[in-house]
Amino acid sequence: METLKELQPYAYFFYTVFLVVILYGYIVHLYRAKRNGTRDYEKYAQLALDDEVTSVPLEANENNNKNSKK
Fold first, then answer.
1. Are 61 and 68 in contact (CB under 8 A)?
2. Distance CA 25, CA 23 (A)
């Protein structure tokens, strides 16, 4: 039981470092996606403000486009 109490601060430190690495990796992913033009996550934030039924969709639905071409 004593060894578990001695290891707990080390486990907490490494867990915190692991979460920080995951956070920074996610931030880098967001910036790379925006820079490459594959996804712009900032426009999705607009959904919180403009969520009316009559609002213009952010992206075209690819499934509807495929079905309409048939």
1. no
2. 5
Residue 63 tokens read as: 């499934």
pTM of the model: 0.59
Residue 43 has pLDDT above 70, yes or no: yes
Inform me whether the pLDDT recorded for 68 exceeds 70.
no
Cα–Cα distance list, 1 to 4, 5, 6, 8, 11 (Å)? 5, 7, 9, 11, 15
Task: Compute the half-sphere exposure of residue 38: CA atoms within 13 Å on the CB side of its CA.
Answer: 6
Contact 47, 58 (CB under 8 A): yes
The secondary structure of residue 49, as a DSSP letter, is T
Virtual torsion, Cα 15, 19, 21, 26, nearest 10 deg: 160
Provide the 8-state DSSP code for 53. T
Q: What is the mean pLDDT of the chain?
A: 83
